[in-house]
Amino acid sequence: MVDVCQSIPAVGLGTWQGAPGTDDDAALENSIIHALKSGYRLIDTAQAYHVESTVGRAIRNSGIPRSEITVVTKFWGEWHHDPAEALRISLRELDVGYIDIFLMHWPWATTPDPERKPLRPHESPTIVETWKKMEKLVGEKCRAIGVSNFTQKTLDELLAAATIVPAVNQVELHAFNPNLKLVPYCESKGIHVMSWSTLGGSRPGEVNQGLKNELFVGIGKAHGVSAGVVSLSWAVQRGITVIPKSSSTSRIEENIKLVTLTEEEMDKINNVHLTISKYRISDDIKRLWLEMDGKMVMQGWSKVDAGWEDEQGNWLV
């Protein structure tokens, strides 16, 4: 397997927004082309975003050599039983020759389309069964494999049976959910951490504290950058790759111009989840949650199953 961890850019462009055949689709293509021409060399996408064909078209139209671009995509739960077919679909949709890093989007699986029945952690295909099938995909068309939204618990289970260590673990990570335990764990296993929603997002009815809170704004003013760049710089300074999404050309250009924060500033941001707010954006993504046996679960998995929390509700990552 290619050692992609040695060459993964610190900042990439996320592509989770844009409906095919709409103005959003055209805007997404233009934003990807602008990002690549501005120096970005990492594009992150997923089958669940329904934009792989747009991403591929933008890469082909960018004028940037394919060999210079790291392309990451992910497959959804209904393909856990057949990741080889998922790979064929992504290769067809992207049409860029090969995929650099192919990720299992979530640890949970469902039955195949069209039923898509949520499966419990012990039901087949388990994460280990899916991973063993993914290991067979590594080669010319799939340079490396990895996971997304895994914790120490699910990674421990996977690594106990793996012959290939995941190249990447892409997780929700921001100052309000800093993953202060998960990141060093991944580093100790040789797994590169990639962060989604690094700017913090916002809970329903609330403003994005990562962009509006005086701590981030003040640090930004001290360095001559926006509050958003402060959050991105904080993550990258921890050795994490960030993949912010933006359709604004000026914001795309700004997001790649990081600054070096002081040790005191890093400590303050590391403690934001204790001093300002603590939350998971994932808790509010309605698509992920459903009721089973009278309890709200994440597609059949409880937060304990996923390793997010212990039985007492204490956060573990």
Description:
It is a single chain. The chain has a single domain, classed as TIM Barrel, CATH 3.20.20. 35% of the residues lie in helices and 14% in strands. The protein has 13 helices and ten strands. The strands form two sheets. An eight-stranded parallel beta sheet has the order 1-2-3-4-5-6-7-8. Strands 9-10 form a two-stranded antiparallel ribbon. The longest helix is centred in the N-terminal third of the chain and has 15 residues, at 23-37. It is globular. Pfam families: Aldo_ket_red.
Q: Outline of this structure?
A:
Keywords: NADP, Oxidoreductase. The chain is an alpha/beta fold and 317 residues long. The chain has helices at residues 23-37, 52-61, 83-94, 127-135, 152-159, 182-189, 209-212, 214-223, 227-237, 249-255, 263-270, 272-275, 303-306, and strands at residues 13-14, 42-44, 70-75, 99-104, 142-148, 168-172, 192-196, 241-242, 289-292, 295-298.
| Terminal-residue CA separation | 28 Å
CATH topology: TIM Barrel
Query: How many separate helices?
Result: 13
CATH class call: Alpha Beta
Instruction: Give the averaged pLDDT, no decimals.
Output: 95
For the record, the count of structural domains works out to 1
Instruction: Please give the CATH architecture.
Output: Alpha-Beta Barrel
